[in-house]
Structures are given as C-alpha cells and as structure tokens.
C-alpha cells in the first residue's frame, strides 16, 4: 500500500517480543506534505476495503502522520523528521524487515490471529 504512493525506505518493525502497545510499526518516508497525505490516504482506503477500522489518526503536522490500527501502527515521515526521531534506533531490539521499492506493497492486518485487539474494545471489524 505504501509503495504504491512512492514511499521511500519502508520498514516493518516486529515489536511482538518487546514490551509495546502494538505488534508492528510500519515506517516510511515521503518527500512532501502531499505525498504524506497520499500515502496515508492509500493505506486508509485499503484497510477500509479490508474491513479494518482505524482506531486513531494523528496528524498535528504533516512532518509525521500516524495511523493506529491497534496491532499495526503506520508512521509516515518527511525524511528529515524521520532521521531526527529515528524510531528504528529507539526500538533497536525489534526485528526489522526492509521493503525494497521494487517489491509488492506492504500489507498488514489490524487484528491478531486470536481475533481480539489488545484491550481496545473501540476497534471492531466491519461485517462482511
């Protein structure tokens, strides 16, 4: 999803073995405000099609936009903002999978295999 809008340096961080409020971070970089919005919009549209509800969206500025799907949290950064906050280093114990820009888009599910999100009853899957 992120790669279809030309996101750069896409990584998936597996946080399941770490004390964390989520299972995965998907982190990517964008070159402009318009691209940040386009990436987030494409992810929101695809997740909605899959019946996964957005739990929270944070976009105080378009230097860093966050989409929280409970078990998966997407961070879309401007390049300079990403290097400043350096989430990859902050969560350095996480397993990191880098996605090349010529691979298929990253997709993520918003719920665990067991079916219930981490104590967030506000998140519900849409009926099929």
Query: Helix segment count?
Result: 3
Assign the CATH topology.
Beta Polymerase, domain 2
Helix content: 10-25%
Order of strands in the sheet with the most strands? 3-4-5-2-1-6
Number of domains: 1
N-to-C SSE series? EEHEEEHHE
The named CATH superfamily: Beta Polymerase, domain 2
Molecular structure report:
This protein has one domain (3-99): Beta Polymerase, domain 2, CATH 3.30.460. It contains three helices and six strands. It is an alpha+beta fold and 128 residues long.
Keyphrases for this structure?
single chain; alpha+beta; Beta Polymerase, domain 2; 6-stranded mixed beta sheet; 3 helices; 29% strand; globular
Outline of this structure?
22% of the residues lie in helices and 29% in strands. The protein has helices spanning 33-49, 79-85, 87-90; strands at 8-14, 24-30, 56-61, 64-68, 72-78, 95-99. A six-stranded mixed beta sheet has the order 3-4-5-2-1-6.
């Amino acid at each position: 999803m992120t790669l279809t809008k030309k996101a750069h340096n896409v990584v998936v961080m597996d946080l399941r073995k770490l004390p964390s409020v989520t299972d995965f971070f998907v982190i990517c970089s964008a070159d402009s405000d318009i691209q940040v919005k386009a990436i987030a919009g494409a992810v929101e549209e695809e997740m909605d099609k899959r019946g996964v509800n957005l739990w929270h969206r944070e976009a105080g500025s378009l230097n860093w936009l966050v989409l929280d799907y409970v078990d998966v949290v997407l961070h879309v950064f401007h390049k300079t903002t990403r290097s400043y906050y350096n989430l990859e280093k902050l969560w350095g114990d996480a397993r990191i999978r880098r996605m090349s820009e010529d691979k298929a888009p990253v997709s993520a599910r918003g719920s665990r295999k067991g079916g219930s999100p981490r104590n967030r009853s506000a998140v519900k899957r849409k009926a099929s």
